[in-house]
Amino acid sequence: MVDNVIAVRDIRKAFAGVQALDGITLEIAPGEIHCLAGENGSGKSTLIKVISGVHAPDSGTIEMNGKQFSGLTPIEAISNGVQVIYQDFSVFPNLTVMENLAINAELAAHRTFVNWRRMRATAKEAIAKIDFDIDLDAKVGTLSVAQKQLVAISRALMSDARLIIMDEPTTALTKREVDALFKIILDLKARGIATLFVSHKLEEVFEISERFTIIRNGASVITCLPEELDHKKFSYYMTGREFDDSRFTPELQADAPVLEVSGLGVDGAFEDVTLSLRPGEILGITGLLGSGRTELALSLFGALPADRGEIRLEGQPVTLDGIRSAIAHGIGYVPEDRLTEGLFLERSIGSNITISEIDSFASKLGVFDKAAAKAAAEAWVKDLRIATPDPENAVNTLSGGNQQRIVLAKWLATNPKVLILNGPTVGVDIGSKHDIHRILRELAAEGLAVIIISDDIPEVIQNCNRVMVMNAGRIVAEVDPAVTGDAELAELMSKDIVDLNGKG
Amino acid sequence: MSATTATKPTALRSVKNRLFSDPHVARLGIILVLLLVFFALIKPSNFFGLATWQSMAVQFPEFGLMALGVMLTMVIGGIDLSVVGIANMTAIGSAVLMLQIAPAGSDPNAGYLAVVAAIVCSLVVGALAGAFNGWLVAKVKIPAILVTLGTFELFTGIAVIISGGKPTSGLPLQYGEIMANRVFGVIPMPLIVFIIGVIVIGLLMYKTPFGTKLYMLGSNETAAKFSGMKTSSLIIRTYMTSGLFASAAGLVMLANYNSAKADYGSTYTLLAVLIVVLGGVNPNGGSGRLSGVVLAIIVLQVLSSFLNTFPNISNFYRPLIWGGVLLLVIVVNEIGNKGALARMLKWKGTQS
Amino acid sequence: MAALVRKLVKTNEFYLFLVIVVLAVVIQLRSGQFFTPNNLVDLANAMVVPGIFAVGAFMVLVSGGIDVSFPALASLSVYATTRILVDNGWEGGVWLPFVLVIALGAILGAFNGLFTSRFAVPVLIITLGTASVFSGIMQGVLSSVQIPNLPPAMTEFGRATLFVATNPDSGLTSSMPMSFLILVVVLVFAFVLLRYTTFGRGLYAMGGDESAAERAGFKVRHIKFWLFVIVGIIASLAGLVRTSMMDSMHPTNLPGIELMVIAAVVLGGTAITGGSGTLTGAMLGTLLIVIVQNSMILVGIPTFWQGFSLGVLIIVGTGISAIQLTRARKRARVLI
To answer: What is the complex's ipTM, to 2 decimals?
Structure first.
């Protein structure tokens, strides 16, 4: 039997009465590429923290390098070769690449004085390890997300790492950047360095992972090989529930389109977009990061003024010169990043829901009818089944899925004609995911026109009656999801074509 | 909708909820009560003397009104360091105006006219100055702390230019008649002005959507834009209100000192910020209640007046007490809400 | 060489330098008095106290905080020092005032450091509190009054000159004060600290991302504490210099200068949010404000207009910065 790089057995950890880890076992062989999958709240972050020494487990053992530990300190973890790269990469945006790479080493050596020549040498050595060509004097804040990630990886490799843990590494990367990352990971494997991916995106990690461990409610549900999984099984293991995968067909048959877009373009983002949308439809727009899909959404919402093209609402041409103009015309937008763009976390659930319509609760004299607003908020909470004991509670007391429902409620309260949702189920547990999809289908049946923008192919295939694929700023295909499969869509999204900037 | 079973009359319950829902307010309330009891027990002659309260009521509106304005700007995540500058500038301006309309020896009617003109002008100019602040913050997008630092110098500079650096006095008697008056022979006018100010802010914050919008804006400006809020207009209106209140403070100062000078109230800038923070307003924006700020004003004033009754403790101890109280509150809060305060007050500088 | 020039042109400090040069030329043209030896020495003279304060303020800003207590701290430590020396009739050398002021500055700085390193409350708010406390101690506990007669050592120090510059035309002379050396020493110290020690890099790291700094291994609490001790010492030195040069201790002279110093540092390109900025920039910013304040008289603008001009300067300077930032963000398509 091969000596594992690390094996955690039967780990239990509780926080204030909540059992985060409930007897989980995980083994990683040397040089293995292992994926840890689980939905939000499954315990995957806690497990990472236990492995890296941030938390000590309540019970269970950790084996590393043939030694047994009942608990680790961060220093012990690092000296045993464990390096974690968190989602924010823990870099200093205001310092140069060189400093970011070298500063840990200087600190670890307890130096009082900093020697710039030594730091530069250290940094050069670090980036050479993964063949990373970067200007050492560039401020990290100016780098792209992929480059920041490579800085973090270089830094992780500086100490003799034997296991690199990456938390959701592919979230903000384009397909090309993901390919580059995978090449590096394979290279690490060749050098005997194991990688533990934490992810929930089956398609992306499928091609590279050698083994999966799926975690649910703090315990491992199954450890298996990729061949043994497909979407349905994956979903089932992550949530323990079987879901009805029926596809969406529009109930409503409306004749006139509510939204028509022709030749819309924003320089440097997207070009020549033409589409039309009827009430009762759910249109899917899919594409990878950088395909222009988010910019298109923002343009339709008035947040990004178009350079050319025309938008018509209910047959009338409109100029959307700002967000308020779009809202006035009946367009709503559930943003990609609800924490920074959609929610007021410290404020109450009720005020988050009523904020866009708040003036409607004011009398002629400007007096605010709090009772009416409260009642309206409570109605929405009930309607969308937002799990909270009191709408006066702050939004940050809720889970991701419930928070997303609040954003949804806010927009539904404005009585829109068109609702655009960008990444509607990102960071949402699978149960809420299906609930939100059901809600959208019901809304469509009631006459709302919905656009779902997402790179989650199954989401788009199941919930849309039409799907448009964007690639490099253009719409390259419009498909019928009943006919087209996952694989073909993925192919259309990632096909290398010459993009708007002439890069192929 | 299920019926709520009320064990107490709902009105009473809601008042109680409002007062005690915010831990800062509750704490300040308790401190105030304790302070008053202490005061009454140790210095009963002063405590039960009208003069003590009257002198308090004359003093605190000066900085109290400024604190009310600063409070609004801090709720939206900004700050207003220019309030003293606006106060002095408008005070000097109105003094000069009054002297023009009713120079020494004029008849009372001219005097009354002068007073009305001065008050109106002061408030208008104050609002405009505040709007200028708001425009710089909202449209030019300069961090509020830098804007108001610059406009503080600017407005004070204008005050110096108009007044030549010397105090402006010789105001028509009518001004003092009205503004330094004791209503019913007992209540000083500054207190009335302050109470009006509190009512105005209270209505704005809690009876109109404006208040809710301010809290949301302070909580997350990006989400505010994405939710369709008129963020620039809100910011400008907030700073306008702060400017208005600052000029009201200037009018009170004008009455109290019967003169105006460009450097009056120099300690009030930081004092106003101190009061607002003491009152439980999060400097990052998005929370804090008016009741907290009002209580903070009263607590500080009562405390310093209490200490004034000891002849050995001079006036100069006041800043020491204020600073000490603030630091004490910080320590107590941190121990009391371990972690909660830390999460709330992660400072990264203000953007608006 | 070309690469160096290109790099230079991208910095804020370069443009600030240009502005100063242009301003100087304009004043020279209007008065013919700017580039005279005695005027330049006068400027250097006027730079000393704000410059020393600016070094301290700069270091705190870089670490991500805003300190408003330094004038009150300086006043208190110098007042106490002077009081002690005068009451005991100190006739000896100037070394003792220095030692006392440094010691007191360190203690008061430690008071600041204690609170800022322990409590997760904005430095601005904490120093608001400590400024009041320092001011209160000085005025209340020590019942401060103006002390007109300083210990002779201090007066001498205040009068000591490095050299004298004479204006060839008007015959006016200005002396370059000995205390300018203190500014130089403080600058060198700060430069070495910020650039060549892990402590200094830690300040920048903290200003960039405090939790990442913690995770990288910086002892953040420790650094914050000692930062304020150092700043306390620096501020007290500035206070000592000022008192010596003015030859009297006026307790309420200094407070009020804090906003001007912070404005100067920010004009010099230091972000108010922390993590970036250079000493050069801070000094250039201070120089700009000092020129505006001192040289207006050369152009015939009465001193009344100083405050106003300072205000305009701050607004325009920060405004330009802000507009540049907005444009850069628009270009990078960082929406809103």
So the answer is: 0.81
